[in-house]
């Protein structure tokens, strides 16, 4: 598990060829003379908070401050925070849509901040997929032509790009709409086209900046489910931006919480909900049912060797789900690991106590 944010820029690089993405000491400072001012402050060895304050005193805006984190291959890493917290600026730095002021960004072991313009074009065509809230479809092109456009730009022959476009259109649930134009689609359907277009090139790393935030709640939930299905099939490494804690908890393997340009906590959904690092993080999950994120692994007792009868429970099962399964039993129930081996037991009466502690 990665450490909390707000690390010092003097730390050595955390990058590894095993990481899909690794950033180290990443800063984005806006304003005249930002690069020189930041370099001067970093030489002092001051903490990142003090560096940011000094930059602000000069009239500069430290939009991203000393961001250091890793994304594992196939991981769905969510960055969230309030409006203005720096999350969108951070993802633009990682994808180099804006040039960071300082730091390191490694993608697949390659430092993209030193890559040439030609190399970045190549990576965006073959390695990096991007989806944003405003997905920018070509209004004069059909769905299939919009999806196939990146392949056309990459020199893929017409038959091959049409076949690939049809494949990803089916993946996002738009079969039968291949010849429709964007004006003939709903907002949710247009968003699906944007997702399909970013997937057409078989990207290794996928950046999504609030892709569902403009959609109605029902369509949003449907697209979240579709998105998880796609991720399960493709195992793409994903950085997903949202300001919605429920969306983050549903989608993420891990979550990074940002405030005022800094990463203040990185953790699994369970860690974010049950062990918030401060009141700011705690407020995000204040209305989230804790039993939905506390697992049996956290409350089970050693197995006493009795016959393993009753409901089938697993260590990853939430207390909320386990309580429903155990509602009709008073005896201890065995808990099994992913291989089906009994690794502990739970007594139904402990559920209420555990939930009370969590709340």
3D architecture notes:
The chain is an alpha/beta fold. It folds into two domains: 212 residues, P-loop containing nucleotide triphosphate hydrolases (Rossmann fold); 68 residues, CBS domain Like. It has 13 helices and 13 strands. A six-stranded mixed beta sheet has the order 6-7-8-3-9-10, sandwiched between helices. Helix 8 links the parallel strand 7 and strand 8. The radius of gyration is 23 Å and the shape is globular. The two termini are 24 Å apart. The relative contact order is 0.12. The N terminus is likely disordered.
Number of helices: 13
Nearest-integer average pLDDT: 85
CATH architecture of the largest domain: 3-Layer(aba) Sandwich
Strand order of the largest sheet: 6-7-8-3-9-10
Largest sheet: 6 strands, mixed
Backbone structural class:
alpha/beta
Number of strands: 13
- The Rg value, from CA coordinates, equals 23 Å
Give the helix/strand layout.
Elements: E1 21-30, H1 34-42, H2 48-57, E2 61-71, E3 76-81, H3 87-94, E4 102-107, E5 110-111, H4 117-126, E6 128-132, H5 143-153, H6 158-171, H7 187-199, E7 205-209, H8 217-234, E8 237-242, H9 245-251, E9 254-259, E10 262-267, H10 269-274, H11 279-284, E11 313-314, H12 319-325, E12 333-336, E13 342-346, H13 349-358
Parallel strand pairs: 3-8, 3-9, 6-7, 7-8, 11-12
Antiparallel strand pairs: 1-2, 1-4, 4-5, 9-10, 12-13
């Amino acid at each position: 598990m990665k450490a909390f944010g707000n690390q010092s820029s003097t730390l050595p690089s955390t990058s590894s060829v095993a990481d899909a993405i690794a950033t180290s000491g990443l800063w984005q400072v806006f304003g005249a003379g930002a690069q020189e001012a930041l370099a001067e402050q970093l030489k002092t060895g001051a903490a990142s908070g003090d560096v940011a304050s000094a930059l602000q005193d000069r009239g500069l805006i430290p939009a991203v401050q000393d961001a250091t984190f890793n994304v594992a291959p196939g991981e769905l890493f969510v960055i969230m925070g309030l409006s203005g917290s720096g999350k969108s600026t951070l993802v633009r730095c990682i994808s180099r849509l804006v040039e960071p002021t300082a730091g390191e960004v490694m993608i697949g072991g390659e430092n993209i901040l030193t890559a040439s313009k030609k190399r970045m074009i190549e990576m965006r065509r073959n390695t990096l997929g991007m989806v944003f809230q405003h997905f920018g479809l070509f209004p004069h092109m059909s769905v299939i032509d919009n999806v196939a456009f990146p392949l056309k730009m990459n020199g893929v022959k017409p038959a091959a790009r049409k076949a690939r476009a049809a494949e990803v259109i089916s993946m996002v649930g738009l079969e039968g709409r291949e010849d429709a134009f964007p004006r003939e689609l709903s907002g949710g359907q247009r968003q699906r086209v944007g997702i399909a277009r970013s997937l057409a090139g078989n990207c290794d790393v996928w950046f999504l900046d609030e892709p569902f935030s403009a959609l109605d709640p029902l369509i949003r939930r449907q697209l979240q489910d579709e998105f998880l299905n796609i991720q399960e099939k493709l195992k793409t490494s994903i950085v997903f931006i949202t300001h919605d804690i429920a969306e983050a908890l549903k989608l993420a393997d891990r979550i990074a919480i940002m405030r005022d340009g800094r990463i203040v906590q990185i953790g699994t959904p369970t860690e974010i909900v049950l062990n918030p690092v401060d009141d700011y993080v705690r407020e995000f999950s204040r209305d989230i049912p804790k039993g939905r994120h506390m697992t049996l692994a956290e409350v089970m007792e050693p197995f006493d060797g009795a016959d393993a009868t009753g409901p089938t429970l697993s260590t990853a099962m939430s207390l909320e789900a386990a309580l429903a399964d155990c509602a009709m039993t008073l005896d201890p129930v065995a808990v099994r690991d992913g291989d089906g081996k009994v690794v502990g037991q739970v007594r139904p009466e402990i559920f209420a106590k555990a939930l009370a502690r969590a709340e």
